[in-house]
Amino acid sequence: MIQWLLPLYVAARRAGERGVWAYAVDAAAFAYAAYSLASAGEGALALLLLPYLVAPALVPRGRLRDYSGLAAALSAYGVLLMASPELHYKALGFAMAVAAPGALIAASPDLGSVEALFRYFVVSTVAGSLVVAGLSASGELGSALAFSGVALELGVFPAFYWVPDVFGRSAPEGLVLISGLAKLGAAFALMLLPLDVPAYASLPLAAASILVGNLGATASRDPRRLLGFASVFHAGLALFAFAVYKPLAPFLMFADSIGAMGLFSHISSPGPRWSAYVLSLNQIGVPPLLGFWPKLALLILTAQRLGPAAAAYLLANVAWSVAYYIRLASSTGAGTGRRPLAASLASAALGAAAPLWLLAAVPLLLPH
């Protein structure tokens, strides 16, 4: 049915590019996507669509700001398509989920943002082509090709440098959607695409990504590049979760996307200083913020399945991230922006209420 509703949504959104009509159409699109996932028995995944709903409100400025709702909705529909059983819909869904947020990179049409836009679309095109080739093939080769495409989009080792490069060139308001929704879409792909990759192949990439991300973020002084390398670190955690227990990967990126989008919104239009600290602590995984719960689940499952040494490696790298996230929070400005404040409050509220709303996701997070 989505193949008929998607053109109707685009036409309705085109009829009203801004204002109340645009918000109403976007809200209806998100509601339908969540309902469809819940009806298909993926109720926990429907909860993880929340960043797609709040992301447009976190874009503080830019000529393309009015199109942020459209980009977020198309990305959410991409996730919905990836959840379908047909392989051609899965391939189309991946392309939509990761490409639509990238269009907002040029929210401010400066030279650096335009360069970053083209660089990202080159990466996204290659990643999508690998996924299409992998889904079209079969066996180990098909899984390897599709996994390579998803890993490229996530920005994991060894194909990670495009992330700080694109982030370092773009205006921060153009990075709100890509830092959260594009990465979350790729994490959804780890779970929803038929990727049969052994742990001995994915775990070294995950461990290297975690290390490289922390090293790069520690050495970076530009907050955009710092968050770019931090994104590599978080992508490594998601890939680690993929090797340990697939459904945990999108949950990890769900929590990290709220913090990343809020931090870029703060850099573009600063809010209270304490909101930057809350968002940074969310990325570290400090309780009771939202970022704490998936990292705790990852540590527990890693200790159970891979042993204490692997869990200690993860814990040491999470502790390492404290230094550069606190440095980032202390170096950002303070202002009256409401958007970073809203993101920090959302992280705190969702984290504090996790014992209630997380019950719906328990079947997703516990091994069968």
TrEMBL record:
The entry's keywords: Cell membrane, Membrane, Transmembrane, Transmembrane helix
Superkingdom of source: Archaea
Pfam family, one: Proton_antipo_M
InterPro entries in the record: CPA3_Na-H_Antiporter_D (IPR050586), ND/Mrp_TM (IPR001750)
GO cellular component, one term: plasma membrane
Transmembrane regions: 67-85, 120-138, 144-163, 199-219, 226-245, 306-329, 341-366
Protein name from the UniProt record: NADH-quinone oxidoreductase, subunit N
Membrane topology recorded in Swiss-Prot or TrEMBL: Multi-pass membrane protein
Keyword hit for Cell membrane: yes
Subcellular location: Cell membrane
Coiled coil location: none
Domain NADH:quinone oxidoreductase/Mrp antiporter transmembrane, chain residue ranges per copy: 111-266
